Amino acid sequence: MVKAQDSDFGNWIIYLGNKQFNPKWNWHHEVQYRNYDAIGDLEQLLLRTGVGYNLGKNNHNLLLGYGFIASENYVGDSDDKVQVNEHRIYQQFLTKQQLGRVKLTHRYRFEQRFVESDFRLRFRYFLSFNIPLKSDESGTGPWYLSIYDEVFLNGESAVFDRNRLYGGLGYQLNKTVRFELGYMNQFFESSSRDQLNIITFVSF
Known about the structure:
Strand content: over 45%
Oligomer: single chain
Structural class: mainly beta
Helix content: under 10%
Number of strands: 11
Strand order of the largest sheet: 1-2-3-4-5-6-7-8-9-10-11
Distance between the termini: 43 Å
Radius of gyration: 18 Å
CATH topology: Porin
Number of helices: 0
């Protein structure tokens, strides 16, 4: 078991951006800075981007993307770290539903991962709920609850990779920017991790 698993509570600082070029085409971009501890002990830096195409009235989106992930992994039980670089190509399909005031998002993602000299395949399914907390006269309000679960499945013999369960409080600042503060548990085959997530969403 690596030292990373012994950390009490990690922290992820996340920026998620989306640029809509026209009613059909969009550009996704994100930066995630992940720490083993509250801050200052880098676990992973993730840079991801992609070009998407809307099907229908923006309820369905196909996207082709690329990610670069630099991980700093502990060696055994020591304080020594080794950096592992990953280049990732991925395809995803995202679809949205409205159930009353609750917004549901389904995301299916297939990844081709080039981890140093290894090649790996992985499938991910993501289901999220966006629940408004208080509505004004127009039927909307700035505060909401965000809940999601995501399961990761490998293409190798050890099929189960991990599961992420998240719950957070969000604030819609305006039509362009919203923020979330949340707690996430990652469950692996024989261990688990907890993270505090601080997320900024920008759509323009």
